[in-house]
Structure formats: C-alpha cells, structure tokens
Amino acid sequence: SLSYDVDLDNDELKKRKALIGQRQSSITGNYLEWLELDLANLPEDVLAKHYEMSRSSSSSSNSGLVLAKHYEMSSSSSSNSGPGGDDLAKHYKAYLDEVRRQQPHNLDKSVERALTVRGPYAGTRPVVSFLDKELSLMRFELPSEKAKEEEGGSDTTKTTSTTVNMEVLLSRLSSSKDASVRANCLKVLNDGLGGTVSRVAALSLSSVAGSWHIENEERKYPTLRSRRNLDNNCPDNVVDSLLQAVRSAGVPLCKRYYGMKKRILKQTQGLETFAWSDRNAPMDIPSSSSSKEGDDSTNNDKITWDEAVQMVERGYRKFSPRMADMFLTMVRERRIDVPATNGKKGGAYCAGVVPGIGPFQLLNFDGTKHDVATLAHESGHGCHDILAYPKGYLQYHPPLTLAETASIFGEMIVFRDLLALAKTPQEKLTLLMSKIDDVINS
To answer: What is the pTM of this model?
Structure first.
C-alpha cells in the first residue's frame, strides 16, 4: 500500500495492491470473520471454561483460539512469536473482549462474509480511495513574486507561475509570512477544488454517509457515533462529554486566541484584516536583540530533513534512549518516505502492517516546523507498533484513542524539548502559538 501511495501513477503497483486487497479480504471473509462471529457468540460459561483450560491443558483444548493463533502466524513474518498452549486464552483476552463487544451488532454470518469479501470493490472504500487519488494528482498554478527586468532601458514587470501539488500548496498557505501570498494560496486552492473533483467529493460524501446510516440502523447502534466509539472502546457518554466541553469552552478559547493572534500579526506583519487564510499564519515575534538592522529575526526558514531528524532524536532521547534508537532505526532502514513529491498520496500516516515487517511511514515533508511535528507524531506511532508487536497480529494494533496517545506523546516530548531550548520569551511564544494552531486544527 505504501509503495502505491508514493507513486499513484504506477499501474503495476495499483494492480498489485488490488490483488493483495482481494486476497486479504477473501481470507478474512472466509476464515477470520467466521471465527470472530463464533467467538462473539460463545456463552460466558463456555468462555470461562476456555480460560480455565488454558491454565491446565494443552492448546489443543482451545480449538477456536488455536485457529486464531494459526491465522495470526500465517499473517506474520515471525512464526515463533506469541504464547505457548498453556497461556493461549489468557494471551488473547484483549482480542476476545474486542470481538465480543461487537456481538449485539453482528449480522448473519453470510451477510458479514459478503460485506468483507466485497469490500475492495463495493461500499465506501473504492470511492474514498478514488477521491484520495484525485486529490493527490491535482496540480495548482501558484503565481510567483513579480520580478523586474530591464528591457530597452526601461523596467518591466514579469509574473511567473509555479506548478505545485496540494501538499506544497497547503505548506505555502501555512508557512508564508505575507498575508497576500496566504490569501492567494487559499484562492488557488478553492478555485482548484471547485472543478470536477468537487463532484467526486460529493459522491464520496454521499456514499460514506448513506452507507454508514443504513448499516448503523441494520446493526442497531443507538447513535451515528456509537459504532466508531465501540471500535475505539470508548463509551458514548465520554465522547458526548468531550464534544460538549469543546462547544462550551473550546469555542470561546479559540476566539480569544485568534483575537490575540490578530493583534500580534498587526504589530509584526501590518495585518489589518484577519482572514480565514491567516488562521495558520506563522508567527514572527522579534526580540529587542534581534530587531537591529541587518539581523535576521525570522527563525522560520526551511528546516532540512537532517535537522528534523536531529530535533526528533534529541527530544526522544531525553525521554528514553530506547525510543530514540527505535526512531533512528526507522530512519536508517529507510522506513520513512519523506518528500512531498508529485503523484504521492496527501497527508501522513504510519502503517504498522504486520509484526516483523512494519512499521512504515508516509510523510509529505516540506521543511516547516509543522512537518517536524508530523515526523515526531508518526514516529510515535511507529515506536508504539514496535513495542506492541509481541502481542501478535490480531491484537497489536490499539484503538484510536490509545494509538493517538502514543503519537501525540511523541510529538509533545519533541515540542517540550524545543521549548526548553528557546532563548527568549518571544521565541517561546512563537513556539507555543504554533502548537496551539496544531491543537485547534486537530
């Protein structure tokens, strides 16, 4: 999947990904789906006996769990990981708890199998994948700064343009210190998204929303969010409380923050009107020692990849040398696809794949401070995957709530290290406001 995501124009990789997806969905639908439905329907007294047998008998007594172990080993590159027979049920307790939570919402076995096997071709997945590809293949004409040339003794002004992909355009939008450049980047983005791709986006949204609504009703989830919350092992009332807190406290705090940001931008960049394109404007707050003529007070120049690696490694090492070593191993083994090249999927992610093979990262690195934070974030996922691999293929991957705890933790220890190294209050405020921008965007 990563190989295709960094080269979306490659038809051979597209074909290979489709064949792998077809095979995976077929195996899962014909074997694992049936096993999970059986495990979900086990009566509590039968399951209790399985746990008891796991402490006193061989693994042959736990036929369902042995099948789970066989599936896991066939999906992993390592055949000697995991528990022995006497610990089998205990080892898989987290997996059993997960599949049994879904029991009230499971459909008939034949229906579940059909949904899984047809997944690569029907439902929302192919539509969303197509939209992702269309967005990644988009190109935008970004006018460059006007350059003056001398022709026949008189000055003439010439405007040039640069063709960029969406990731580079978004990077310019959030990294330029010129309000007119930011506004133009947003206009170019909106104009580009208003064409054919808007109809693809509408189709994708309709497909996802419609399918989600119908399946939620068929599976009898109480609310539209309940299915996702159950997958994340997070009760509905907890999520509802978080949303209410954001509505009641988050919105006023955001308004106060943007009011402060507008005042600072007016002082430092001469900004009169705070537009939507200025929300993520980089801050440049000069200190008294850096305001002298000839001094460069803009510490927001492009960050090289090597510098970004050093920043993350330093922050990780101050917390844990082992975490830093895991990060450097990912860099050294070239497990991170770095640049924001054309024909590459947008955004960033870390793919755990399977124990013994992953993790791999996809970035769209363009040398901004946000890109450093993204590297620290995705590497937090990678370290978490490595530490969780001994749990086996079926249960190494955590729910979203726990997964994001690890990645944001990795991001924040690097941020706190950079904050501690800041030499002036102005530099600290710049870093803090950059982090607040990230938090609001998240």
So the answer is: 0.81
